[in-house]
Write a structure and sequence with these properties.
With 374 residues, the chain is of the alpha/beta class.
């Protein structure tokens, strides 16, 4: 391992290389551009390829193709570019293609304020494409966690043959903090299951193992495989039937939910005696923790719950994280995660505490929206 000082964007790039990234395709967009710029310098030295595409549509389609050629692939963008990736994201879900997409959130809607932050893409990354599916989403709150969760994003993608999203934001992207970078072997790195090479015979690319995840054939290694975006059977052939649709959609969802113990991560502090629980994630959680500490100094038994995984949520674990009767959800948007937290803690008082700020909300900003519910 080596210790350095880096930004969140650099940490994401380093995490991707630790995880085994070999192909990056992207298009420059603030505030994610440094990821591509850094990888353009570093990744070729590790035997990888970086290519600037004509747009975000080309970028995500390029990494889907690269993944089927057998390499770990990633792209990075921000909200406007992520909007353009929605259709291909659905293709990655349906074709069970392991890719990592980094969304570094900025203010919107539309062009918004390119150089400023937000947490308004939370539901966009959950429901970008149409249809039934669950895409795992991770949200770091520090430079080190940007690195760690990038590695976790690749591991999840490879383990479950699924697209995975790392949801950063402009604050984390440009924050500089100490960073520990690990060598392969010092940190868990998962590679996809690949079937035994065939001799040119058709291979069923969607026939699952008991864990509901099919081994993934690789182009150029003797497999004859259909990569199908239509509802398909285990061989990849179009199957416009109720039974095929039900079986496919159910498996795509259950293969994720069966591993929620691996996917879902959270952090709790002061929850043992908490009477008020503050819930947050990403950069905003940094200020929320300071508010929790301040409230406890005032004699208010406040607890802290930070979601590292935004989708899927482990509802049972969240419910058991605290017995507090009052829950306050703080986020830099109009209140999006609040809707799920309200549903999960349905037997308690749950309140939204939205903070709309172009910069990192200060503890004072957070305290002002929290105090109305205390």
């Amino acid at each position: 391992m080596r210790k350095t000082f880096a930004s969140g964007n650099i940490a994401i790039a380093e995490g991707a290389m630790t995880a085994g990234l070999k192909f990056y395709a992207g298009y420059p967009i603030t505030p994610s551009s440094e990821i591509m710029e850094y990888l353009a310098e570093k990744l070729p030295r590790k035997g990888g390829v970086v290519i600037q595409m004509e747009d975000e549509i080309g970028s995500i389609n390029a990494i889907i193709g690269a993944s089927w050629a057998g390499v770990k692939a990633m792209t990075a963008t921000s909200g406007p570019g992520f909007s353009l990736m929605a259709e291909a994201l659905g293709l990655a879900v349906m074709s069970e293609t392991p890719i990592v997409v980094v969304d570094v959130m900025r203010a919107g809607p539309s062009t918004g304020v390119p150089t400023k932050t937000s947490q308004s893409d939370v539901l966009q990354v959950r429901w970008a494409a149409h249809g039934d599916y669950i895409i795992p989403v991770y949200a770091p709150w520090s430079v080190q966690e940007a690195y760690d969760l990038t590695v976790k994003a690749f591991n999840t993608a490879e383990l479950l043959r699924t697209p995975v999203i790392l949801l950063s934001d402009a604050v984390i992207a440009h924050l500089w903090e100490p960073l520990t970078i690990y060598e392969r072997g010092e940190i868990e790195v998962i590679d996809r299951k690949i079937p035994v090479e065939s001799s040119g015979t058709p291979y069923p690319p969607y026939k699952p193992d008991p864990d509901l995840v099919p081994p993934m054939p690789v182009f150029g290694r003797g497999f004859k495989t259909i990569v199908e975006s239509l509802t398909h059977d285990e061989k990849g052939f179009y199957a416009p039937r109720d039974d095929a649709q039900k079986a496919l959609v159910k498996r795509l969802v259950l293969k994720i939910l069966k591993r929620i113990d691996y996917i879902y991560e959270q952090e709790t502090r002061f929850t043992e005696d908490a009477e008020v629980l503050l819930v947050s994630y990403g950069s905003t959680a940094r200020s929320v923790l300071n508010v929790v500490l301040e409230l406890r100094k005032r004699g208010i038994k406040a607890g802290f719950l930070r979601l590292k995984t935004l989708w899927p949520l482990d509802e049972e674990r969240i419910r058991k994280s605290s017995s507090a009767k009052k829950i306050i959800v703080v986020e830099n948007n109009i209140g999006k995660i609040y809707m799920d937290i309200d549903r999960i803690f349905k037997d308690r008082e749950v309140y939204p505490a939205p903070v709309i700020s172009l910069d990192l909300p200060t503890p004072k900003d957070v305290l002002e929206v929290v105090e109305q519910w205390l």
